[in-house]
Amino acid sequence: MFTEVWRFSSQRSSTLPMNRRQLFSVATFATGFLVRPLGALLFGSIGDRVGRKSTFLMTLILMGIATALVGVLPTFETAGYFAPIALVLGATCLAS
């Protein structure tokens, strides 16, 4: 995790100050740890009602879509503050 935070926050091309870059990079990892229990509760209850196989398929599709969207996110220079916010939202979908 430290190497990812360092690599993300040490990019010199960004116009953000160093402390904001580090905050956004840590926020992407923090959402994964904070949202994972909520996703377990949500998809656990869906799995009990609908069925575990269809719920598993739904989570795989959701994770695939979120991974693809995170892969095509624009940089901060092209999209401004939308880029880190979208990255945190994508990490939230990946963690659930």
Description:
Helices cover 81% and strands 0% of the residues. The mean pLDDT is 79. The protein starts with a helix and ends with a helix. The chain is built from five helices and no strands.
Question: In a nutshell, what does this entry contain?
Answer:
The chain has 96 residues and is mainly α. 81% of the residues lie in helices and 0% in strands.
Descriptive terms for the model:
96 residues; mainly alpha; 0% strand
List the helices and strands and how they pair.
Layout: H1 2-9, H2 18-49, H3 52-71, H4 76-79, H5 82-95
Helix pairs in contact: 1-2, 2-3, 2-5, 3-5
The radius of gyration is 16 Å
How much helix is in the residues? Answer: over 70%
User: Which parts are unreliable, with pLDDT below 50 for 5 consecutive residues or more?
Assistant: none
Strand content: under 5%
- The biggest beta sheet, please? none
**How many extended strands?**
0
Element string (H = helix, E = strand): HHHHH
Number of helices: 5
Mean pLDDT: 79
